[in-house]
Each structure stands twice: as C-alpha cells, then as structure tokens.
Design a protein that fits this description.
With 350 residues, the protein is an alpha/beta fold. It has 11 helices and 16 strands. Bound molecules: 5-S-methyl-1-O-phosphono-5-thio-D-ribulose. The site of 5-S-methyl-1-O-phosphono-5-thio-D-ribulose (MRU) has 18 residues, from helix 2 and strand 9.
Length: 350
C-alpha cells in the first residue's frame, strides 16, 4: 500500500487523497500551515490519519520557534497547538494527538533542542502505534466475520484514513488474511466519494473483490439478502457509544436494524471521547456547500439552489451491535465497556 504520510528528513510527506484514484501525488509540508491546509482540504483525512498528521505538523511548528528559553518556547508552541486543534472539529483524534504532544512538551526536560527531538520521536511512535493498533483491532474484528461474507462499508476507514491497514477495512484485511472469503460493497459516499474513490482503490489494490453502490441503495441491497454485516469507522465515539461518522452512516445503521444485519463500528480507543457523554454534544463539521452543489468540479444542482452539507452524522448507540477496538470487541452497555477499555489502556500507557 502507498503510505498515507511519512517523514522525509525534515518534511512531512502527505499523500494527496483528493487526487486518488487517478494520481498518486505527495505534498511535501515544511511548515505547520501547509499541514493544516492539507487537513482542512481533505488531502489527508480520516480520524486516525489527521491525528498523526497533526502531531507531525506540530513538530514542524516547534522546529520553527526561535525562543531559546523553554518557558517562552512552550508558550508559543501552545498557541500553535490551538491553531492545529481547530483544523477540523469532529474527529476527536485531532484533539487527542494535540493533547498528547502538549503533554510530552510539558513533561520534557527544560532544554529546547531536547524537547524538539522528543516531539519528533513521539510523532514517529504515534505513526507506528497506529498501524499496530489497527492490526490488533483487525484481528479482534475478524472473528465477527463469517467464513464467506459480504461487508457493506461507508466512506473510507482503510489504510488511507489511518497510517496503514485501516480500521473497518483493517477488519476486512484481517479476515482475508485468516482465509475468509470476503467481498466488499463500498457506499460511494456522496458528496466527496471517499467510498468510490478510496475504499474501492484500496480493495482493488489488495485483490479483494469490491463493488461500489450508490449510498441510497443500502436498504434494497439488504432486502435482497446481499449484505451479511456492516462495518464502518468512527470520527468520535461518545461515552455512551453514540458514534459520529461520515454523513449517511446513521441511515445505514437504521437499514441494518430493519433488516437484522449486524452493524459494527471499528475504531481505536483514541476515537473514544469519554468527556463527551452523548452524541448530541459532538460538534458536527459543516463544509462548503459547493461540495454538494457540484459533481466532478461542475455545478450539478439547479442555479439558485442552496445546500446542506453536514460532513458527519451520529448513529445512536442502540443501533451499534458492537464496537471493535484494539482492546477487543466491546458490547453494550457502552458506558461501562468503553470506560473499562479506556481505563485499562491508560494503565498500560502509564
Ligand atoms: O471527511 P473524512 O473523509 O475525513 O471522513 C472520514 C470518516 O468519516 C471515516 O469513516 C472516519 O474518520 C474513520 S477513519 C478510520
């Protein structure tokens, strides 16, 4: 697989996902502003990937701060971190990564070159950890996939949305590696087509059979018995299990319930936000109306029409059959299972 992002000496190289599947182009980022622009314009996207991109962008920001006095350096660094935190509101991994980097800078010895070196190392650790976490959650999730199965997924929760392997598609990969025969149906995912462009591209590259379907087809496909399970990623999971993910996920979950199809969310514990008690408190990003009013760069909606462009929706916890994490498959009541999994994880890290 082509990497989503990596360090090339002092540049953060970001795969420009806006150009996929047509072209594989990397954007060299030498300052934080460029990384923020990549995050805002979805050159890099997907909750875990933007978390790691944020950490890498902050390394670039830190390197450019001239102050030699650690207190002054830290104050300027904290101001830059707030700019990064504001790049996109819904995926909690962004804020999680910013907090992790700030905590490291605060705990590091009072020596600016040492802090800078530690931040760089931390960003490399976060990148490697993300892949390891996805492989672990993939292994747990693969046990839920029948020997022969068709998986319906929404948006792209694959290698491209992470540092590699993926969350929902990580489960697909792990199931295939375990010898299961898996077919994928990728919702095309209007308006930006992450399913048609990115999920389909990843699956074709791996030789995993994939068919793209219009978003509105989900109910009919389930009605025809063509879907064995739904597997999606998440941008933020509230303490009670309510799950924010790409717009259209909620519709999919409702159809799944109607047709008795299991609906699984796959996400690392960094996507679980215990500080947000329920989904109604998750901030939902609204994007440029032009994304909805145009198709392939050309206006498709009638002149004069306006657009509603919420990038994410919230699936209520009662529609979620299980949440697949690196700590295992979590079941309702999620208030308890998520809190327990997070507590165990922080004990491990401490
Ligand atoms: O707007 P995007 O493309 O960043 O939205 C991405 C999603 O909704 C993904 O499903 C989610 O971030 C999980 S990625 C492992």
């Amino acid at each position: 697989m082509v990497p989503t992002l990596y360090w090339d000496q002092d540049a953060v190289m970001i795969l420009d996902q806006r150009k996929l599947p047509g072209r594989t182009v990397f954007i060299p980022c030498r300052d934080m502003k460029r990384v923020i622009s990549c995050i805002k314009t979805l050159a890099v996207r997907g909750a875990p990937a933007i978390g790691v991109a944020a950490a890498m962008g902050l390394v670039l920001a830190g390197a450019r701060i001239r102050a030699k006095d650690p207190a002054k350096w830290r104050a300027q660094f904290a101001a830059r971190a707030e700019l990064m935190r504001a790049a996109r509101p819904t995926a909690v991994n962004l804020g999680w990564a910013v907090e992790r980097v700030l905590a490291l800078a605060a705990a590091a010895p009072d020596d600016v070159p040492t802090i800078k070196a530690m931040l760089r190392r931390e960003s490399e650790i976060m990148l490697a950890e993300d892949i390891a976490i996805n492989k672990a959650l993939g292994r747990h999730g693969a046990k839920l996939v029948p020997k022969k199965a068709t998986v319906l997924t929404h948006c792209n929760a694959g290698a491209l949305a992470t540092c590699g392997y993926g969350t929902a598609l990580g489960v697909v990969r792990a199931a295939v590696e375990a010898g299961k025969k898996v077919k994928v149906i990728a919702d095309e995912t209007r308006p930006l087509l992450q399913g048609a462009r990115l999920t389909a591209w990843e699956m074709v590259a791996e030789g995993i059979p994939v068919a793209v379907a219009p978003d509105g087809a989900a109910g009919a496909l389930m009605d025809k018995g063509l879907v064995d399970l739904c597997l999606v990623g998440a941008d933020r999971i509230a303490a009670n299990g309510d799950t924010a993910n790409k717009i259209g996920t909620f519709n999919l979950a409702l159809q799944a319930r109607r047709h008795g199809v299991p609906f699984y969310v796959a996400a690392p514990l960094s996507t679980v936000d215990l500080d947000t008690p329920s989904g109604d408190l998750i901030p939902i990003e609204e994007r440029d109306p032009g994304e909805v009013l145009a198709f392939a760069g050309r206006r498709s909606a009638a002149a004069g029409a306006q657009a509603i462009n919420f990038a994410f929706d919230v699936t209520p916890n009662d529609l979620v059959s299980a949440i697949i994490t690196e700590a295992g498959v979590l079941r309702p009541p999620y208030n308890r299972s998520l809190a327990q999994a997070k507590a165990k994880r922080s004990l491990k890290v401490a």
